[in-house]
Backbone:
């Protein structure tokens, strides 16, 4: 990843963050600019999940509606790209899974009920505490690690083409950068009181 590519990627995140701030204040031109900027990327994410043209269009439109509804909850405006792509990807996966289920389950038969949850209250609490620790560490992590880890953690099969385009990175540099970012994340997590609860990991 060249310095120019990195700078371009960071500049894109900063520009989109400013557009989000303006859109929050009621600037329709800023909102349109944000849609024009990220629309093609979101479309590609939806189509990559195997959706039809119509389904992809619906998912992308719904993502924008969700953004307007929840944008005050986005604490870091720089995260708007990851927020939108994650929303599109999850909704697309949900639709694809539902369509697959409808095509494979006989309408007169019902699948076995899911197994009951076996996690204890303590285990659930530990997971929540560790999740908060991860969020705190990521909030302190600079670009491009924060955005890269957000993309990768949100997808079962990360699309490196989409990540490269969005972050301004070379596709071949994503893997090595991911390794360095994860190593740094692990080191920082060891310093968090909610991570591991004093046990060696």
Residues:
């Amino acid at each position: 990843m060249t310095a120019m590519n990195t700078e371009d990627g960071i500049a894109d995140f900063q520009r989109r963050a400013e557009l989000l701030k303006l859109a929050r204040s009621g600037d329709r031109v800023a909102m349109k600019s944000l849609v024009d900027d990220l629309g093609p990327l979101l479309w590609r994410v939806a189509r990559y999940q195997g959706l039809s043209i119509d389904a992809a269009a619906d998912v992308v439109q719904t993502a924008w509606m969700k953004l307007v509804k929840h944008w005050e909850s986005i604490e870091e405006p720089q995260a708007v790209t990851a927020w939108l792509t994650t929303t599109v990807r999850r909704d697309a996966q949900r639709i694809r899974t539902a369509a697959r289920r409808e095509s494979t389950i006989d309408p007169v038969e019902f699948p076995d009920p899911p197994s009951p949850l076996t996690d204890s209250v303590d285990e659930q609490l530990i997971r929540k505490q560790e999740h908060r620790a991860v969020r705190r560490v990521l909030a302190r992590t600079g670009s491009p690690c924060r955005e890269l880890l957000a993309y990768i953690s949100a997808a079962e099969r990360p699309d490196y083409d989409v990540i490269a385009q969005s972050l301004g990175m070379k596709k071949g540099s994503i893997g090595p950068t991911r390794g360095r970012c994860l190593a740094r994340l692990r080191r920082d997590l060891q310093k968090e009181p909610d991570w591991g609860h004093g046990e060696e990991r």
Notes: The CA atoms of residues 137 and 188 lie 7 Å apart. Helices lie at 3-24, 28-48, 53-70, 80-104, 121-140, 145-153, 160-167, 171-189.
